Known about the structure:
single chain; Rossmann fold; seven-stranded mixed beta sheet; 7 strands; binds S-adenosylmethionine
Amino acid sequence: MFGKVYLFILNILRSSKLFTYFLWGIKIDKYCHTTFWDLTSLVIKKELSIIKEEKYLDMGCGQFAILGQFYKKRNVNSKIVSVDIYDDLVENSFNNSKINKNDIQIIQSNLFDNVNEKFDLISFNPPYVPQKKDDKVKYTKIRYSANDGTETMSLFLGKAKNFLSNDGKIILGVNSYYVDKEKCLSLIKEYGYDIKKITKILLNSSIAFTIQKSTK
Ligand SMILES: C[S@@+](CC[C@H](N)C(=O)[O-])C[C@H]1O[C@@H](n2cnc3c(N)ncnc32)[C@H](O)[C@@H]1O
């Protein structure tokens, strides 16, 4: 019962332009789908609130580049590149960043395919829901990632270290309801990173792992 009420309220809040403006400070005009942010965006936001790096790559920026814009407002001199695989979401993010007067670069790219520089900070709230065979939804990669939910984050972890500056860090957010924490920790280790910090929020099942290239 509590779970159903929680989800009902959450779905109203994350589809609300007014609440999104209150929480993120970002005005919304047009949108491609009705989920404006999720529980994982919130833990990454919490961590971004205390970081002041110069060059930030917002991987999988979604329909508003909400993390990139949030960071830009707090760090006006930073350089931000926001990336998504879907052209529609890139276009909507670009238009939305103009409405909000945030000067960030937004490009279409399958992970790092069209990224040509290194960053002090990279964040990713990847798709991590295990794909059921009969699910045919628009923008599948917003949510689903193969049978166990880890395909996209594994591909990301394999490539991301080549796009980090010296001492650069990654914030990887995952909802532990779909992929458990131990599985994430073992993937992070397997791909050659050390855990620097784990960020959580009360009543939120998502976790943000701050990680760096392993020195071992
Ligand atoms: C869970 S949403 C996160 C959206 C937004 N960053 C947020 O935190 O609210 C995941 C995003 O990653 C994008 N994505 C999935 N696979 C990708 C890939 N291979 N390369 C780039 N973006 C990808 C999806 O299109 C989607 O916008």
